[in-house]
Amino acid sequence: MRYSLAGLIANAATGNRRWKPLWREPEPKASYDVVFVGGGGHGLATAHYLAKEHGITKVAVVEKSYLGSGNVGRNTTIVRSNYMLPGNVPFYEWSMKLWEGLERDLNYNTMVSQRGVLNVFHSDPQRDAYARRGNAMRLHGVDSELLDREQVRAIVPFVDFDNARFPVRGGLLQRRGGTVRHDAVAWGYARAADRRGVDIIQNCAATGFRIEGGCIFGVETEKGFIAANKVALACAGNSSRVATMAGLRLPIESHSVQAFVTEGVKPVIDVVMTFGAGHFYVSQSDKGGLVFGGDIEGYNSYAQRGNLPVIEDVCEGGMALMPVIGRLRILRSWGGLLDMTMDGSPIIDRTPIDGLYLNAGWCYGGFKATPASGWCFAHLIATNEPHPLAAAYRLDRFAAGRVIDEKGMGAQPNLH
Amino acid sequence: MRITCPYCGERSLEEFTYRGDATVRRPDTLEPGAAEAWVDYVYRRDNPAGLHKEHWHHSAGCHAWLVVTRNMSTHEIVAVEFAKPGAAE
Lengths: 416, 89
Prior knowledge:
The complex is a heterodimer.
Chain A: H1 5-13, E1 31-37, H2 41-54, E2 59-62, E3 78-79, H3 89-100, H4 102-106, E4 117-121, H5 124-139, E5 145-148, H6 149-155, E6 170-174, E7 178-179, H7 182-195, E8 199-201, E9 206-212, E10 215-221, E11 224-233, H8 239-244, E12 252-264, E13 272-274, E14 280-284, E15 289-300, H9 308-321, E16 330-341, E17 347-350, E18 356-360, H10 370-383, H11 397-400
Parallel strand pairs in A: 1-2, 1-11, 2-8, 4-13, 11-18
Antiparallel strand pairs in A: 3-7, 4-6, 5-6, 9-10, 10-11, 12-15, 12-16, 13-14, 14-15, 17-18
Helix pairs in contact in A: 2-7, 2-10, 3-10
Chain B: E1 2-5, E2 9-12, E3 17-21, H1 34-42, E4 51-57, E5 65-71, E6 77-82
């Protein structure tokens, strides 16, 4: 069912009883051309682009839980392409361009809101660093503006500009950045892939791989064996656990990061804003809650929840930047499960096993990359060659010394 | 999460600093195949979803290095020992 204004009116006139589910719930077939392990944003996006751009539709996506249960439904919905390194900027900018056309591509309202991403800075050296980042972006054709204090004040007047320790001196603004409704991204890609014939199999965990002579032959799942000559892992958070079943040891640790939402209030902040002197970022959802987050927990975890010291740390960052937030009550907090690579950058590559492809290591920045990750991973699976935009995201870059250290992120950046 | 330090007793997480996997050993650079062993040591991880032996430093307490055995899926701490044998004496 294609969504349109005529369809909306027709359904409204008939009491909204004729809407169809967004995707089928098929049983797995005995074999496919490609099987995805992981039905998160990246797996679903890849299945969509594989079908649409490469015509490969005999595809299954197996997901251990329900769609949207993992990181695609747990992130803070921010999209941006304010990167600096050559291996990163063109990739994330392509992602931004795909976000800009996503709703037309998917025929689905993903609520793309280009409200701007504002990174404030607090000192002269930090201004230099942000100016350099902004210049690197513009050299790659990405929009960025260096704002002075008064220009920042015009956007976020409630910020504590004269904070004794962290006075705000200005900011770097990417106007094309913003937020996208995260669940809708999962649902929209799932619906689009399903309409092209992709089987999405929920509540069906992969339990092993059939590998003989260094080649993959299929995936063992809770619903039986599924044969495929190409198997693609897109299960960030659990990449190590799944890859271990194929005998791979990855340069990844699983960590937890928390996010928070306050009670709903009237519109107060109409951009995404980040604190430059600690790890705190905030935006306001359409329901009015302030959605904010900060650092990872700092110890390995698969628990999808965090502890109180980080909550305190994040809230202190919020109070230093915008004391008005202190009047709000936190409604909910939750945790996401992250693949932290050792350099803070992702992996989209072949593996030593023929036919087994890896999409992993998104650290705490995977959501914004969803479209480009799907685009490039689909290219890799279809052609067996890396897409030029993702050529730097090699699995062997750690051994080769070609790490991509965007800003000292990684599992243990040792910045503190 | 609270960690029971063998010296100080049960203390808040904020007093401890995480180091990572306590089962790996720094490779000997003079051994054959040392380059690959170093890549393994520096970059690759077992990253199990169950019990994990890991180093924690009681940095805001007694400064002891501890080996904590923790379930990564539940955060349940099964055992806490001194990293250095004989440190209890």
